[in-house]
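Limitations
The structure tokens in this dataset are predictions for the assembled complex, not deposited experimental models. Users should treat interface geometry with appropriate caution, especially where small molecules or nucleic acid strands are included. An illustrative entry is reproduced here so readers can see what is and is not provided.
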Amino acid sequence: MTTAACFIIASRSDIPIYEAEVGSAAKREDAAQLPQFILQAALDIVQDLAWTTSAMILKTIDKFNDLVVSVYVTDDHILNIDDGIKSFFQEVHELYIKSLLNPLYLPGSRITSSHFDTKVGALARNFFCSRTQYRA
Amino acid sequence: MEPDVSIETSCMIRIAVLPIGDVPSTLLRDYHSMLLRHCTIPLSTISSFYTEHQKSPFAHQPWETGSLRFKFVLGGAPPSPWEDFQPHRKILGVIGICHCPSSPDLDLVIDQFNAAWRGCSSVLVQRCFAFSPGDSQLEDTKKRENLVLFPPSDRPAQELHLQTMMQDISASLLMEFEKWVLQAESAGTILKTPLDSQATLSSEEVIKAKKRRLARAQKTIGDYCLLAGSPVDANAHYSTALELARLTADYFWYAGALEGSVCALLVDRMGQKDIAIEDEVRYRYNSVIVHYRKSFIQENAQRVSPLTFELEATLKLARFLCRRELAKEVAELLTSAADGAKSLIDASDKLILFVEIARLFGTLGYQRKAAFFSRQVAQLYLQQENRFAAISAMQVLAMTTKAYRVQSRTSISKQSLSDETETGHVDSGKMHHQSVVSLFESQWSTLQMVVLREILLSAVRAGDPLAAWSAAARLLRSYYPLITPAGQNGLARALTNSAERLPSGTRCADPALPFIRLYSFPLHPSQMDIVKRNPAREDWWAGSAPSGPFIYTPFSKGESNDNSKQELIWIVGEPVQVFVELANPCGFDLSVDSIYLSVQSGNFDAFPLSVDLPPNSSQVITLSGIPTSIGPVVIRGCTVHCFGVITEHRFKDVDNLLLGAAQGLVLSDPFRCCGSPRLRSVSVPSISVIPPLPLLVSHVVGGDGAIILYEGEIRDVWINLANAGTVPIEQVHISLSGKNQDSVISIAYENLKSALPLKPGAEVTIPVTLKGWRLFLGESDTAAGKNAFGSMGRTLKDGSSPSLLIHYAGPLGDAQDIETNKSSVPPGRRLIVPLQICVLQGLSFVKARLLSMEIPAHVGESPSSLANMDSKPFGEAVGYSKIDRLVKIDPFRGSWGLRFLELELSNPTDVVFDISVSVQLEKSGNEDNLSVDCAAEYGYPKTRIDRDHFARVLIPLEHFKLPFLDGSIFSKDLQSDGSTAGRNSNFSERNTKAELNASIKNLISRIKVQWQSGRNSSGELNCKDAIQAALQSSVMDVLLPDPLTFGFRLARNGSENAAKLDLPKESDTSIHHIASKNSVIAHEMTPFEVLVRNNTKETIKMNLSVTCRDVAGANSIEGAKATVIWAGVLSGITMEVPPLEETKHGFSLYFLVPGEYTLVAAAVIDDANDVLRARAKSESSDEPIFCRGPPFHVHVNGTA
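Predicted assembly:
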């Protein structure tokens, strides 16, 4: 089993503003986008759920085959979708708020900062490297 | 697994619908749909067909409220191994459908029908419906079992007939069920499922099976009760079955009975749903699911599994609960069902499962989930690798496009599209950020690309070229930045390949490349400006701002506040142009076969154009067309024929895309990545088409290039005006605008006026006289430094040329119309004819000087007339040599005090100039020559100035002298000289000063310095100021004659000459003595005459004296070495000359030595008046006024 996770920050209007593939997955060509498809589909559930609970972390709200979806809903309803470790989400949320404070960043547009990218990558390595499960 | 299962499925009687013989598919579908209306047959309606043969086992049959339910399976189904377990899986009835016209032989139909249903053992009732039988078939009265002929009639009648038939079938089925149940109750049947081991039964198992038999029988009877529409009976049997099954641990059958009981419950309650029932159903079904799971037996897991039942039960529950409020619960159920898919062995089961899950999620409103599972379905179809599966995959994927926001435009409803265009039209430029975001909501590009790629793949496999083209187009257009050049090429190939399979001229709603945006709507060129006409005014063009080129003028204030909305007027039949920008951001050469404006309103003929766009390039092209009829024109975009398919590219879409790109929501701006400048929001103006107007076109005869003029050059330019419109021009007015308007000296406006009305096609030529303006000092300096062409470019760029504004209009239209509706007056137009004048520095004037020249006169027999100095040279010119116009100086008069105006000219240009000076002569003051009263011209030969050279031109100022010295003229001089007399200046003096100035001006204006260069450049040098400056100081000397004029002549025929001084006589006499005319011989007494003329208007008294000098200048009359002896008086001659007349005085000289002598006369004027004093510039009043004549030469021949 390979260690892999797909991490997406989706904006309020469900546009992915940040995508990252963490870990190395032995990808099959056709299945490469499967985690993303699952995450996108999970948004339906998340949208309903986010209004019914005050919890920010929604663990294992959806799954398909072996892929499990966990979600961290920020207070402005921007969704970080991933499987999850609480602290990972919190750290990334902090990063996200930092980038949101950038006056040049237009809320809702893509995060293209390479700095953000490396930080998320580093955090993800910390949290997921020990895991042996294929995650999404 | 079976599709479309629900809890109620258990109570449905399955009937196969089989086409018998040849039934057209549309008719079959039609008949099937007729059948589908009879899915439920109330028990109350079948009682007439029902006959109770024996006591019915369905004791609690609800005859009043109950009903039988049917499920029609078109084409039938293969027998299921599970039909014993669930009788609703059995095909219990068969309905054959026969279309009589295509199957004439009814016997054959019956045979085919029987063959069809006999394969199915479970069939209890069979009927063959023969629709639309012919007359012969109706007459064929032979009784055939199971064949029902539907007499030809209208649809309601047929439906009634069908309903009756269905009631008949229902009754038959009910009776069959009763039979079956009675039989089952009496003789125990062995009921088996594939789950039970098929191999030899061990004794233990046989005992077990015997125990279980009863439970299974009870369950099956319950099932039949349910099918017979008697839920209460069913429930009773199920209760028994549940008890027995639990005791025998027959979990599978237990679950089945439980399922049946839930169905019985629901049927009993007739669809009413309350919380209690819902809870009951949920509770029981969860138990069903658990028991199905329990029945899983490890040893035959490879062969058969109850998993499908578990999943079906889950789906049934999910479908039952499928409501928005219970979304969470349903989602969980569906997620667990999806989880079960891993363990499904059969691929088609998986397919059905995913289809059902997708449908349920869709019902729940979870579109993305539904799309996700639909995509799974499509992938399963694609794994099957056949064309029909690919078609299915394509169709399923097409359903997902909405959720993934990659819809084809064809699937978007027209209503929403028109809404978009409506709202977008208002303010596309100021779209709010939020609404822009909403346009790009859920744009998950990675997923969208995958979906589109799959659609493309499935469409290619399915052999649907249009769908493939559309998918490839969407993929390429939306995601080109994410596709490698190789991939882009692949897509381009896919587009071309698909197009090859399509008929030519196929249209597709989804545009591919290129990206097209509006670049600009050119306003009317200045040649076609439309001007609103005010019929009430003579100058109808005034007060209305022309349509261009200035959108805002400060003077149009208050006219229209709505400046944000551009309005454009097009004219029927006049071609218009629109600029659009095309971009090809991909890495291949894009060739657009044709592109033209797509106009919604249909009153526009667009001209197609073909364009080739290199990779990563953008290009602005001009699209043109002709409006064909009056009304508004709506331009939505362009119609493009590219990659073999015709598509419509809307400007609106690209505008939104660019807006999105500007907000960072879209991947890339196709225009920017092609190097085109940033987004410019160009909105489509509201365009209206008006009826034809006249159209004036102009061209300058001899080429429309710049008219190159040298400074001061005067030239005629012919401007050709033609009416290119279809309406005559009835009104026209020409005015000037721009800089240097004074360079247009005259416009032959009358030529144009007289040509009105200018019919269509007619033309008129008007001459315009131009004069090159003076370049400013700085301008000329730089121009001198540069070459001629450099300066030409500069002058052109400055826009210093004037323009002709020609306002013109067609007929006013109906007079009544105008009164009723002012706005109906057809507008006029304005033609701007820019006169492209390029003024080059030409001949330049350096300075002017006044020179004086003194040539002594010869004393001869023919004396000059002293009276009028002008007359003689003029007379000569006329009389002797018209051609030779050299300055003639009369040798007998000399030119003492002759003055020349020297003009120094330079030619910095690179052409040669010819200068000709002309002087206009005035004859008005001369009483002698009354016949000539007009101004005559006196010309001098041309002077040529080479390039880069200087030249001087001399203008003799001999003809300007006034005929007499007059005090009135003179008083100015008194003043200007500052003499005491002029101190008391008064009004009259000022007046005379002005007069004098006028005469100076007059003098100057008579001097014309004209130049010519090349064949057709000519002009006048403007040097008046310089001449005036040069003349100012000595104007008096030039203008005013001396008070006395002196002259000498030989007086051989003394008496005659003395008597008559008339010129003609002189000429006569001179003929006789022509040989000795000028000869004075030494040692001979020679008579002389000195002539004195009074040029004033008063008699002058004077004291005249004559001296004679030799070459050395010594006085040769007096002194020691006197060489001349004289007779007569030579000094102190007192003389009185009446005004403007001559007096002569005779004397004789005897020359002792031959040689050159000079005679000089001088006079002291007695009692000089103020005028004379002023002329002599004397300082004091008692100073004697001394007049001296010019020297006269005498050549004395002979030997010493």
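Some entries come with short summary sentences. For this one: The interface with chain A takes residues 327-328, 331, 335, 338-339, 342, 361, 365-369, 371-372, 375, 379, 404, 433, 437-438, 440-444, 446-447, 450, 663-665 of chain B (CB under 8 Å).
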